[in-house]
């Protein structure tokens, strides 16, 4: 068995104690898992103190396996260590060291490992593992640094926050950002709640949501809604799209408006689809709604939030663009063809896409929570929208995949009907002046830079 080692070192704009504290909070591991990995935490016992355990579901290609890790050593503010109990390596020890320097906190991640059957493996096997670790820890340290900088800019007392849609693509990324920032996060669930996990039951169709028996919340973040791009829009699907948004939004808005101590801020999701297919026009928050189905949905969605605004609660209507993450949504669907390549374009390819990376999306939400001057509708997207052709060409370049023949508009209309017409062939270009003038700083506002970060493909 041959021993190998890997070390990643980076400086961060905080103290060693603050950096250690970030790692000790719930959600730290989830926050650091690269989005291109299918890895997810499936069980946890304790924290980073000795005896704490974590089980993760991981994949070797398409084959799943479980990785069992145990924390074995911890000196608060200085170091903690975990080892593999069961997993693919013959041995694995991860030591996290925190040191104060004049330039900030130094984090050293040291991995000591041994490969199973190393005597049978080529000499390049260890180099391959180290290259994979370099890719992973580049993402981890870049993300951690941006998170620390964000929390430094938005210094506030810990907030008590309630989230709907916390298990969705956006909510599951947002919660770890909030908890590692020290905030107290509760979630709305439709199944029987587990109060030890800070869950609250709600049922929008029946109008059930009781918040009166709980201490007041500072903020409500409403993200729940049926997937609008999940297939052909039948009459039943359209009804579900509308009801899932209007019922839930209205229930939350009415409930918090009646509370004796209402939350200070209510963030509710909408979409840039509010403006409809606007060709190459650049839409701003004061512009009128479009005249297609998505516009109608967004209009009803936003109107349902009025009771909160009428109560005097600062209400931010988040008109969200296409959120890019390999873990769901449009990018995940596009990546399904990556082994073969990507279509050159959908239809004529000139339709604009107002996009935003997942890490900027969740950062904007925290920014909106902590920025009292921000209210009303806010376009949430990169300041640099791209056309459908530009998106696909950039994705192919980042992943070194070929561009395939375009998919004709007629084929998409035949397959998906109105959904194709509005979601795939329609476009919207929005201005983000309101967001930027409120003081938000993008992590990545360039498409290629964003995709390289999210897919672990450095230049």
List keywords for this structure.
459 residues, alpha/beta, Alpha-D-Glucose-1,6-Bisphosphate, Chain A, domain 4, 2 domains, eight-stranded mixed β-sheet, seven-stranded antiparallel β-sheet, 14 helices
Walkthrough of the structure:
The chain folds into 2 domains: 3-153, START domain (Alpha-D-Glucose-1,6-Bisphosphate, Chain A, domain 4), CATH 3.30.530; 160-455, Rossmann fold (3-Layer(aba) Sandwich). Helix 4 packs across helix 9, helix 10 packs across helix 14 and helix 11 (409-416) crosses helix 12. The strands form 6 sheets. The chain has an 8-stranded mixed beta sheet, with helices on both faces. Strands 1-7-6-5-4-3-2 form a 7-stranded antiparallel beta sheet. The protein has a two-stranded parallel ribbon with strand order 14-23. It is of the alpha/beta class and 459 residues long. It is built from 14 helices and 23 strands.
Percent range for β-strand residues: 25-35%
What structural class do helix, strand and pairing data support?
Answer: alpha/beta
The number of domains is 2
CATH topology of the largest domain: the name is Rossmann fold
Low-confidence stretches: none
Rg from C-alpha positions? 23 Å
**Amount of helix:** 25-40%
State the shape: globular
Number of strands: 23
Largest sheet: 8 strands, mixed
CATH class of the largest domain: Alpha Beta
User: Can you count the helices?
Assistant: 14
CATH architecture group name of the largest domain: 3-Layer(aba) Sandwich
Mean pLDDT: 95
* Adjacency order of strands in the biggest sheet: 11-10-9-8-12-13-15-20
């Amino acid at each position: 068995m041959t021993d190998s080692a890997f070390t990643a070192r980076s400086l961060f704009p905080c103290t060693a104690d603050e950096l250690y504290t970030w790692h000790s909070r719930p959600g730290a591991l989830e926050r650091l898992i690269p989005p291109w990995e299918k890895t997810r935490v499936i069980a946890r016992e304790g924290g980073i103190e000795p005896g704490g355990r974590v089980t993760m579901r991981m994949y070797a290609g398409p084959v799943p396996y479980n990785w069992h890790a145990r924390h074995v050593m911890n000196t608060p503010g200085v170091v903690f260590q975990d080892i593999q109990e069961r997993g693919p390596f013959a041995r694995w020890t991860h030591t996290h060291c925190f040191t104060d320097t004049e330039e900030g906190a130094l984090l050293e991640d040291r991995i000591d490992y041994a490969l199973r059957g190393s005597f049978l493996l080529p000499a390049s096997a260890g180099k391959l593992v180290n290259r994979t670790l370099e890719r992973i820890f580049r993402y981890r340290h870049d993300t951690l640094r941006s998170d620390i900088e964000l929390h430094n800019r938005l210094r506030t007392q810990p907030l008590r926050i309630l989230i709907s849609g916390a298990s969705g693509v956006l909510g599951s990324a947002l919660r770890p950002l909030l908890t590692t920032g020290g905030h107290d996060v509760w979630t709305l669930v439709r199944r029987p709640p587990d109060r030890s996990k800070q869950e609250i039951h709600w049922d929008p169709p029946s109008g059930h949501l009781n918040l009166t028996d709980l201490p007041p919340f500072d903020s409500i973040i409403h993200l729940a809604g049926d997937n609008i791009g999940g297939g052909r829009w039948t009459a039943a699907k359209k009804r579900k799209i509308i009801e899932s948004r209007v019922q839930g939004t209205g229930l939350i808005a009415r409930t918090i408006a009646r509370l004796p101590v209402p939350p200070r801020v209510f963030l509710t999701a909408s979409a840039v689809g509010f403006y409809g297919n606007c060709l190459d026009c650049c839409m701003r928050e004061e512009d009128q709604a479009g005249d297609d189905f998505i516009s109608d949905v967004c209009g009803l969605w936003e109107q349902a939030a009025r009771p909160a605004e009428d109560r005097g609660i600062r209400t931010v209507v988040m008109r969200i663009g296409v959120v890019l993450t390999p873990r769901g949504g449009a990018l995940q669907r596009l990546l399904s063809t990556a082994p073969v390549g990507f279509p050159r374009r959908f239809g004529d390819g000139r339709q604009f896409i107002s996009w935003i990376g997942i890490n900027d999306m969740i950062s904007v939400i925290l920014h909106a929570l902590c920025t009292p001057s921000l209210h009303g509708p806010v376009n949430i997207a990169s300041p640099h929208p791209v056309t459908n052709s530009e998106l696909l060409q950039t994705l192919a370049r980042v992943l070194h995949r070929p561009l395939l023949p375009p998919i004709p508009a007629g084929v998409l209309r035949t397959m998906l009907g109105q959904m194709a017409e509005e979601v795939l062939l329609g476009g919207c270009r929005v201005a983000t002046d309101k967001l930027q003038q409120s003081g938000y700083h993008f992590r990545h506002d360039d498409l290629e830079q964003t995709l390289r970060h999210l897919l672990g493909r450095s230049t």
